[in-house]
Amino acid sequence: MKRFLFLGMMKWERLLAEGRFGDGPKPIASEQGRSEFEIDYDRVIFSAPFRNLQDKTQVFPLPDQAFVHTRLTHSLEVSSVGRSLGKGAGEFLVNKFPVLQKQGITSSAIGSIVAAAALTHDIGNPPFGHAGEEAISDFFRLHQDGKLWERHVRVDQWADLINFEGNAQGFRMLVSKQFGLKLTYATLAAFTKYPRPSLIAQRDIARKSQKKYGFFINQLTDFEHMAEVLGIEKISGDCWVRHPLAFLVEAADDICYSIIDLEDGCTMGLVSFEETLELLKPILGQKFDPAKLKDRTNTQNLGVLRALTIGQLIRETVEVFAQYEENMRKGNFDKALTDIIPSAKALAEISSISVKKIYRSKVVLEKEAAGFQVLEGLLSVFSKALYHHYYHQESFSGQDKSILRLLPEDFPMKGWGAEVNPYPLLRALVDYISGMTDKNALNLYRKVKGIALPGV
């Protein structure tokens, strides 16, 4: 029998603490009239990593015509759905727990937490989406220039490098002093869908929160501190329980990519309007009125159907959250909410069609193939130059010297050598590459490979 270390039920009055890293307790209402959680949202909106999402594809490369979503528009929409989910769940929570009202916590404050966390949910994604994650992992796992580093780092650090995870990269960015976001503990915890490191003794496949990992090993102390402040308990020796609001952030993402990726697929002509309509009907049920689709274009009808569908999914998700809220705090519930709502079967059918007709379409596969080449090429060039500089000086060439001069001015070039663990150096390199937009990565790849020259 598996032995759990979980000791008791988490308390909402601690789970919704508004403190930040390095700060003492603050009142819910700030001098500017904004709650601390609204400040989180505003800080993300104005941050450089968030702006970079405008040139990172969601599924499709940006076409010359027909609007499709970028990571930026996707994140804004997920945040909007997240706010609705959070406010709906918040109304339930403040009625069930009067102590929250005494602390000044409103349903709107809870909506702001989920909105801010949802806004950041893709902030750690590299160029070229999930193909980019695989490309970075494959470089260290399979490429000769990547595998050179294995003997210089610890086993748990190597596990981070050969399994790059956008969620962990996002947590790193959100707690890093480099970006100055300093989000509240509650928002960070709601962001963290996978509260575990990359290397664990055994993964419990029944728990959705252990499917991936949520922080790199050098952010373990940050995560432990956050968990202690909020009263988030461990479920085993190396895994924690999810913050309950993380289930809502996950649901907001699930709802948006299911419905809006389908809408994009229809816009791109990969799925017919008629088939899209049939996929959405089971969710809408009696709310579907064919008369409302008359005298409109298919594009206009898609917008109406999308709004109605998302509204229905939000209502279903809030109801299921309320049903399982206590089990979440006990650590007994660990599933995706969208897998158990009444429309779960319809969402599964949409996912199946999307895989066949959208995610495996030629235009998407071509983008992924290009992403593998670009990221592997960039990592190879910079990694080789760094390795020669610090570990194989006799091979350090003029080309290596020129390559290293292309790194950002704040790149940590000092303090490394044969006796120093280079994990932080490699983390900085991955920060640089994964932080690029699709276009920047492609342009830099062309230049370092001699495919394109500046000014030519």
Automatic annotation (TrEMBL):
Pfam families: HD (PF01966), HD_assoc (PF13286). Transmembrane segments: none annotated. One of its GO terms (molecular function) is dGTPase activity. One of its GO terms (biological process) is dGTP catabolic process. Keywords: Hydrolase. The keyword Chaperone does not apply. Residues 67-267 form the HD/PDEase domain. The keyword Hydrolase applies. SMART domains: HDc. NCBIfam families: dGTP_triPase. This is dGTPase. The lineage of its organism: Bacteria, Pseudomonadati, Bacteroidota, Cytophagia, Cytophagales.
